[in-house]
Amino acid sequence: MFTSNQKHQLKFFSDSFIHSYAQMFFSDNRVFAWLILLASFVNPYSGLAGLFAVVVSILFAQWLGFNPNYTRYGTYSFN
To answer: How far, in Å, are 21, 38, 41, 47, 48 from residue 70 at the CA level?
Structure first.
């Protein structure tokens, strides 16, 4: 189904995505991050805009060759 490289990339992207939300409150707690993500969808347009911004910032950080560890922990994409 997925190759090892694809699994690694998917894990990297999902970690980067959820940590971006947790980093807004300087946290590494994944449950807290999911709660923040859900709360952002109280207004669907705000939730989608935030989701889009996080995805674009992660992809842009990868494209520019930024440090993958900082990308994974949401340092570049939390704001």
So the answer is: 14, 24, 26, 23, 24
- pTM exceeding 0.70: yes
Q: pLDDT tens for residues 15-66?
A: 999 999 999 888 889 999 999 999 999 999 999 999 999 999 999 999 999 9
Among 11, 7, 27, which residue's Cα sits nearest to residue 19? 27
Q: Please state, in angstroms and rounded to a whole number, the distance separating the CA atoms of residues 46 and 61.
A: 22
| φ, ψ at 76 (rounded to 5°) | -90, -15
